[in-house]
Amino acid sequence: MLLLCVAAATQLESVPSTDLLAGSRSEIAKATSDLTDQFGQDPIAISLEADLSSTLAPGALTSLLSMEGRLNQLKGVKAVYGPGTFINQTVVQTERIVKQQLGAVGRQADAAEAAAVKAAQARGDSPAQVAAAKKAAFDATVGTKGKELQELLVRFGSVGLPGLANANFVKTLVFGAGIEPKQRFKWLFPDAEHALILVRPDPGVSGPDMLALGKQIRRVVTQTKLGDAKVEIAGLPLLAAGLERETRAEILRLAPIAGVAMLLLLLLVLRRRRGRLAALALALGSLGLTLGLSLPLGLGLTVSTVAALPVILGLGLDFAVQLQARYWLERADGLAPDVAARAAREGLQPTLLLAAGAMAAGFLVLMVGPVPLIDRLGAVLAIGVLSAVAVALLVGPALLVALDRGPVKPLALPGGDRLVRFSPAPIVIAVVVGLAVAGLVVSDRVDLQSDISQLAPSNLEQLKDTQAFQREIGTSGQISVAVRATNVTDPAVLTWLGEVARKAQSVDKRLSAGPNLADLVTGGDPTAQINRSGTQAMMKLLPPYFLDAVVSKDRRTAELTYGVPFVSVDEQGRIARRIDDLLKNPPAGVSASVAGLVAESANSTRQLDRSRPWLLLLAAGVVGAILFAFWRDWRRVALVLAPALLAAGLSSLVLALSGVTLSPLAAALEPLVLAIGLEFGMLLDMSFRQARAAGRSPAEARAIATRDIGGAVGLSAATVAVGFAVLGASRLPLLAQLGWLVAAELVVCLVVAVLIVPMVSERMAPKVRAEGSPSAGRTRPGARPSKQEVPT
């Protein structure tokens, strides 16, 4: 069965982890989707560390140009932007404009160039010598007529006639009159010792194909002679793909660990009891059914799926243990196997169905959150709990009968007699409740973070590459600005774009501006007036290859990009919000929004941070409303919810005081514990009421609930807690944090439930109407007349 579960998991399609950190309903998400469709995914960057004078030497430029051409031909690559392509495209486009202006002389220059190149190649000249011969032929043919274009060439940022072998042209193009690269070319030349090559993958490339693309890129770079340049290759697409691979591998790691952990738990707690592994078989069936349903529902294989699977195994074991414990009680009372199985199902079915429905509703509350990572977790858990109760009630009785080899000693809670006598002073209860309320109040002070690197194991190769690249270049991702208009090349739009670009630089001096259409049109001169004729002239001069990097072919969408400084995720979010504030008053007919993963995840996490305390209250409200609809008793609803709410409040207080930073997945901590923990209170409340219905006194009913059902509840809580604790063994920090936190909080919830629910039920008993049950007409095994008959 376990192998079938794993096989089902491997059939689920992976969902990029980057998609899970950003909500799909926001304006930022829509803008990001538009830019990805138009310009490709965030780039895979190749950093070359060497003095730019050597990187831009004629021979090195020729090698770079060849390498960039091969990169551009790789499957899955939308575009490549690098020094060789940049300078070569500038040369080609400028030569084309020059020859158009020269007319017949230009055609003569073409013929002279072709002849010079042919002769140089016949002599066996080097590429640099061939380029020099070509330029000499052009100069000799054109003569002084080429000077007529000097003003346009100077405006574009070059000196002399263009050519890869023209050192003055290359130097002036990249550096201008200074020793540092021009500000508007920082996206290709961050400083005088670094050059970047940006490979933008196609929108549809993800998972294994992205990792394969990364290997091909590295192979091409390795095969290119780059002198003494130090090379770094990294990018968010590669990190996300590496994390997807780790996610799938984590299922293969955690599934056996979870299975063994549950097996050891059953062997330890149910020692010397026959049929003790029936519950594990039912739990595995629940897991298989959940995975089978996830496939047609399109939930995919995500970090959330991995987080949910051990928990679903625990929940499946929880329901199965409750059924088996009740079955053993019925068999100890002398019933035949088939009658005991039917009585166990009838006695538990109303409570388990109601508990499962309320738990599923509590899990589904997570789907109102702004982060898909949480949505998926809620959806998978909701399917899992419904699968668990269905398997337990439909398959469980028949399996228990088939494995029955005679009566088995029922479960009992160790130290039950002492717990029955436990009665804390009112002041102690008041202090605990006060601390829990304080924790709920300050829960919004627990910080969240959305750094994708926190999802990945520290030894992941792609993570190490990304961190090394970030330290080398000083940037950690990019923020984009999506601008949409009927025609983004309209002078009014370009003027506004230029103003936004200049103001964005004042947001943080460490921002590294990417290509900007307004900057390209003005040649980087902030004082230049943008008019229609000048714009058209520059648009003709600019290489189409680079126009495609900043403006869509239909001229309706433009992109501005900014390299984000290597700072904390919180600070990146503040930078994104400040840039977004600059976009509030665009010209008529223009819409603009920040975009990209940094902006998306910061926005989603900020919304999740604001909504996190309300998720718990919403879950409590939804679950409470469902229970009230069946019970019509608010006191009873409050009683079964109290353990989970107290545990949530106390844990929130500890987290707030300790300064722990939660991952987005751990933001679901309190609603998860509420949804799972309410079952503990419901089962104890059910036991107390059924004992009262059988004629037992409040004190006897408390003892029965604490000793008999408390043991089963304790084992149920242990199975779910172990399921979460298994996540603590994950190599993914996000999963490990969630696992340990929920496991610890469930233990607190169990202790509070066992101590509080029977005690408060006893005190409320005079005001509580005894309820009938399917077994009320006979003596219940839990309502035996003497203490000696109660198992210990």
TrEMBL record:
Recorded GO CC terms: plasma membrane
Q: Where in the cell is it found?
A: Cell membrane
Key words of the record: Cell membrane, Membrane, Transmembrane, Transmembrane helix
**Does the keyword section mention Cytoplasm?**
no
What topology does it adopt in the membrane? Multi-pass membrane protein
- UniProt region (Disordered), positions on chain: 767-792
Give all residue intervals belonging to the Membrane transport protein MMPL domain.
190-405, 544-759
Pfam family membership, one: MMPL
What InterPro entries does the annotation carry?
MMPL_dom (IPR004869), Mycobact_MmpL (IPR050545)
Chain segments annotated as transmembrane: 251-270, 277-295, 301-321, 352-373, 379-403, 424-442, 614-631, 638-659, 665-688, 709-732, 738-760
What is the protein named?
A: Membrane transport protein MMPL domain-containing protein
